[in-house]
Model the fold of this input.
Amino acid sequence: MADATVVKPDLDFVKGVIAAGGESLKKCYQCATCSVVCNLTPDENPFPRKEMVWAQWGLKEKFQGNPDVWLCHQCNDCTAYCPRGAKPGEVLGAIRKQTIKQYSSPGVLVDIVNNKSLMPLIFLLPAILIGVILSVMGTFKIHDGEVIFAKFAPTIFLQAVFTPALIFGLAVGIMGMRRFWDDMKRANKAFSGDLNGSIVAMLKEFLSHDRFKKCGVSADRSTSHLLVFYGFVAAAIATAIGVLYIDVLGMESPFRFGYGTPVKIFGNLGALGIIAGVLFMMSNRFSNAEKLGAGSYFDWLLISVIAIVGISGFLAQLLRVAGVAPIAYPVYFIHLVFVFSLFIYLPFSKLAHMFYRGAALTFLKYSGRETQ
Amino acid sequence: MEKKYGVYLCKGCGIGESVDIEKLKKRAALKGKVPAELIKEHEVLCGPEGLELLKNDIKEGVNTLIIGACSPRAKTEEFKFPGTITERVNLREFVAWTSEPMSADAQSLADDYMVMGIIKAQKGDLPEPTILPDLSSTILVVGGGTAGLSAALEAAKAGYQVVLVEKEAELGGWGAKLYKETPRQHPFEKLEEPKVFDKIKEVESNSNIKVYKSSVIEKTDGQPGLLDVTIRKNGNSETVKVGAVVMATGWKPYDPSKLEHLGYGKPNVITNVQMEEMAKKGKIIRPSDGKEAKKVAFIQCAGSRDANHLPYCSSFCCATSLKQAKYVREKNDDAIAMIFYKDIRTPGQTELFYKNMQNDPGVLLTKAEVTGISDGLNGNLYVEADNTLLGEKIKVEADLVVLATGIVPSTRAPQEYLDGLTEAGKKGDEAKKVYLESTQKPEFILNLAYKQGPEIPTLENAYGFADSGFICFQYETRRTGIYAAGCVKQPMTMADATEDAAGAALKAIQSVEHVAKGIAVHPRAWDVTFPDPLMIKCTSCKRCTEECPFSAIEEDEKGTPFYKLNRCRRCGTCMGACPERIVSFKDFSVDMVGSMIKSVEVDEDEFRVIVLACENDAYPALDSAAIKRIKLNHKVRIIPVRCLGSMNLVWVSDGFSRGIDGMMLLGCKYGENYQCHFIKGSELANYRFSKVKETLDKLQLESDRCQLVQVAINEYDKLPQMINDFVERIEEIGPNPFKEF
Done:
């Protein structure tokens, strides 16, 4: 039997998936109901049935360059229809976490970031960092007079601390994504294709969330995700305008402009989108918890961070306008800590899905498994 | 008994509206030769008034009652009059509910049925039970494993003396050789200590149970209630008298040396039996170097569900492997247990244990067709498998391979030996002699001194498991008073065997109690009649001794058959077999049924078809059809028989020579999954039926005029149509030319 694949079960991998939120993994008895009800899977070699048995057998190498776990958007149709309560949706989520760990370096940060007992620490560290720098700069206090956040965190501070954090996050993520891309090519023996076309097709699909909308039992999730995503886009545009004015044109900070100006419109729309989207996500998860599972710590960590970022940002603005300095500055500080966390933990938290899912969806077209 | 007749017609349940009772009375009186004043009618015979009427008449001396009312299968308590001959005529189901009310056809049907009932009562006699002297109610249990111990305890607790014979030096069987047992209690997670040791203690301390260890049975002679069992222990023989037997002789593991294709023979390939031994000793190690095994592969159905080995499922191997996987995991949390299965089969609540084991991260399961075991490095092995759930052919390293081998019933080896002997015997005395000399005789179990062979017959094509009325009556073997329990009958778990043993013990108790009352055992458990041959006419043709499904007829030294009555189940197969027609029961005989057939009114321009219906399946099916008011062709006359095996060919010539146009014989399903209450009756009827053509040829009649059909009780909805179609066929053939004579 020359063509037999030698498989090497790895008990630690199994235990890892279970620990990462896939505690129902072993319940699967391979009936394949999940693959049948999934609206998102390609017809050939559908997921998630095969991923379930690979994970049960601890076949780590099967997940090396496996795009399918990222094609899954965790609609949880599979989980809703699973006759054994094996929750394939949750399990695939746990496997994705294992992939993020595998490709992000240092991978151990994934575990640290996602270790429940270390939670205070992972936010305390950025808080201390920001606090110490601002203290050294002498701005870490409640300023008198009109509430102006630039007094508390000067532009130069933001440029020096937040820009590198974001660049670090993006760089680690992109490096991981590249490794993942190469692995996908190797594992699927797809070495050539229309890369640009695939990226365009992926982006089109992504911007409309067309794929996500195919979800059955939790169709609302695409709406909430869309809100959060465009919220961030709007916030990014507002930030970009800021960067344009301050760094490129060397002009006055546009954030002090009136509410009718683009920077304010984008900023506030972004904040409202993020807040509304994230609250919608939470309510979805709670209402579907019994049927689909409420999600893992990994999921909730990201949701919470985004919620705090959005709410603290918006609240800081209200307090600023209201002129309640004693509360406005601490809230702004919290906002800074969580935005920093979002950036720095970008490749290690669930947010890293933007890289891997993006790559996998592109690969789907690139490899010709799904036509563009 | 001097008969004093009473004929009663019930008008209830639509009978009064279907037939003219006055006409019926006249006809019955005329044709049945009964004085008209003895024929009474009542609106509701089974009601208090009606029953009062019957009881008063009985008080007045009526002792032979012919009751034209509902089916004899209905109202059995109401119409039970001990000390009388009570003949029930089925006017309700076969006339009122299945034919056109107040038609000439319904009237003639009722006439014929009433006359047949009267004739049957006239020809019959009041049966008296035969109770043989010096009966024993002791129960012999053969085999001291889980099933045997359980049966012994159940019988002893019910107050019966028990003799328990175990071939090994210690009681306990396989149950005592286990390290742990599969959980039987919620939540089916924790392995349990073997329970058999408590049972052994209980058995050994029970004063009702006498235990013979290291003992075998040399000979079993006699009949239920009077079985002389010779037990040999340490070279000494002792004969004990028992009433009934529970046979719980269990199983042997399938011979693993036949599993070379699965690697047996390599040092690190063992069987599930060896795995138990190893776990009991302590660590799970590789036999080759004594190192702890960390990657253990279990190959399910090793030699099972495989046409080249054991074609059946042994029922417990899946649970056993899951249990042994737990041994591996409990002894080392870094170890993995891989299970390659055809299908996981965990019957009953073992399913919950399976689910629990599946949840263990170190228990890896896949459906697979194991194609081979090859050598790896350092004594490791590669399990190669195709059609796996992983979607490809795989090869996985293991340091220990466990073959989940199945069971072979202890009855198989003797049966194979005896089959071989029969085959050789067919080739002549010389071949038989060669066979006896060249073949090693396996251990026999019961060594019955019975005409039809020394062991329990096993079911054909069932791989040596004891034959029982499997579909309906699991415990009944083909030797009356001997009940199979546990894995000798079918593969089962210990939990199932424990329950099974209780059932078998109860059947054994029923057997000794019935024998003490002179009544038949199952399935005619009420019957006090017995075959009463007119021996003066016996030609010693031995057809009866050969055909009796239960080996109830022996031959004396002159070759003359005689009955071992307590072995008889009263099916009447001997009555059907006897060419001299000398076998009769008090209420069922060749002459009786023949006379009933001949009594049917045959008109020149009317067709008449006789249906002989087996009482066990066909007759209740006809009743059921009637309850559904499915119309039956009015040309049909139904006569019940105890078993189609009791059908004597003379009835066919009786019918046709009298001008009956067609005859249909309804028996039970036979062959694999047979439903015949008397196991062989229907099959024998079919064999005899092949001779019907000769009979019809002699009469120069078309052989199509007689048809034999097997029906199951659940085919009641189709049965009337089958009969109606047959009548139509007969009509196509045309009237019986003998009508004119």
Notes: The first strand of chain B starts at residue 5 and ends at 10. Chain B has a mean pLDDT of 94.
